[in-house]
Write a structure and sequence with these properties.
By secondary structure, the protein is an all-alpha fold. It contains ten helices and no strands. α4 packs antiparallel against α6 and α6 packs across α9.
């Protein structure tokens, strides 16, 4: 009896690199289209044309248009492929490893202000789409829950360095609200605060609210 030939799964590093480049090119092409035309009026075909790929390639990589948008947000939260989440970046690890609570908040406020500024335009597109599209409403809620999950880690880091005025879960909710793209938009776009002004205000407010 002839034994069946065992097959090995093999992934070419070159193919993986090409796939990563194609993915990045699609995201790069999609962002200006979303910002110019909005989510509803931006088609997968238009994104594919701008990225110089076939629409089937876009579907194969992302599945649907909404995931292109959420991947854009993920990319702005953690641009490096070596940092899969926002709390695994070097800037976030510095907050985690800092021994002084006030310095932790200083580092966090400075970092998250810059992160939120990058994310804000794409976040606004998602929020606008969620108003008229139930599927996007669900995705918007999913993204907010993800953001709160990551912020809980920051609250836990603070709690490990000393007492807080509230329990860690309430601290996470406070940070989640104050460091939101929506509040950043109100202060930085509408009221024309600078990034430094927003960062300083966030630091001061968190210190006053969370620390004795």
């Amino acid at each position: 009896m002839v034994k069946p030939v065992k097959t090995r799964s093999y992934q070419s590093p070159l193919r993986e690199e090409q796939a990563a480049r194609t993915r990045a090119r699609i995201l790069e092409a999609a962002r200006p289209l979303f910002e110019r035309d909005g989510f509803a009026r931006t088609s997968v075909k238009a994104i594919a044309t701008a990225a110089h790929v076939a629409p089937d390639t876009v579907y194969a990589i992302f599945g649907n248009k909404s995931r292109i948008l959420t991947d854009l947000i993920d990319h702005e939260l953690a641009p490096s492929e070596d940092d899969p989440t926002v709390t695994e970046r070097a800037e976030a690890r510095a907050v985690r490893d800092e021994l002084d609570q006030r310095q932790q908040i200083h580092l966090f406020a400075r970092d998250i202000a810059a992160v939120v500024e990058r994310v804000r335009p794409i976040h606004e597109i998602l929020q606008t789409a969620a108003v008229v599209d139930p599927k996007m409403q669900a995705i918007s809620l999913e993204m907010e829950n993800y953001r709160l999950t990551e912020i809980r880690k920051v609250a836990a880091w603070l709690a490990r360095r000393g007492p807080l005025r509230v329990d860690p879960e309430r601290a996470a909710e406070i940070i989640w609200a104050l460091a939101s793209p929506s509040l950043s938009r109100m202060l930085c776009e509408i009221q024309q605060w600078s990034l430094d002004q927003y960062s300083a205000w966030l630091e001061d407010t968190l210190v006053r609210t969370l620390l004795d």
